[in-house]
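A quick aside before the break. I want you to see a complete sequence-to-structure record at least once, exactly as it would be stored in a machine-readable document. Don't worry about memorizing anything.
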Amino acid sequence: MGELSAAETVRAADKIIHDVGSRWMLSRGTAEHGKEQGYDNPFAYYFAGRGGVMGDVDAEVVSAALGWFEPGFVRAQWDEGVAVAGAREATRRYILGCAAWGEAHLPEDPRLCELAERVVRAAEGSGLPLFCGWRAEPLPDATRARLMQLVQVLRELRGGLHLVATTAVGLSPLEAILTQDGPDIARFFGWQGDLPDCAALRPRRVEAEEITDRLSAAVYERALSPSERAEFAERTGAVGAAVLR
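That is the input. The structure line, written in tokens, reads:
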């Protein structure tokens, strides 16, 4: 096995981590699990389950921590979700759904769990409340469930760093979406009405991506040796091949 720089590790692994996390959160199986847990609305389950690591907070806090979602949309879904069983219990149930999805879809890879946990522990949590909330949750013993939760924690790390970066370059949540993903995704995130043309702001989005990559690379640099980074990327790629094919 070769070696990878921290920057190469970002390019090899971070998108896979993002996409695998998205796959479980948006899957029909996760929505069905939520319904079994008392959440008829999958969006309410998502917001209460994902944001509930921060405890019984106002929806404005959840909106600030998640970023990019339209605040009124967050409030409606969060309030509906926490009304079922509270914030912390929503996260407990959401983690059960995470574990079930991991058991069904992920390969058995205790070594990747070990490497991923080292990355998670090496990250500086300042300014990353959602990541820190997820990092503080106990990890399951079962390997596939443990790996899926670690993927989720790593996804929150990258997402939190990216929110820091888009804010730093002066992009609002809506501008950050429109400069990359376009109006359809913006509407999926709850933004309605006439949407602005943000084409002139795209250089800021490029800058934000570069900042995010640098911040992410710094974590890999602290956590893993060059050969361990290559192993982490290879094993993460195998997860992506199993889940995203």
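Two observations worth writing down. The two ends are 24 Å apart (CA to CA). The chain is about 75% helix and 0% strand. We'll return to this after the break.
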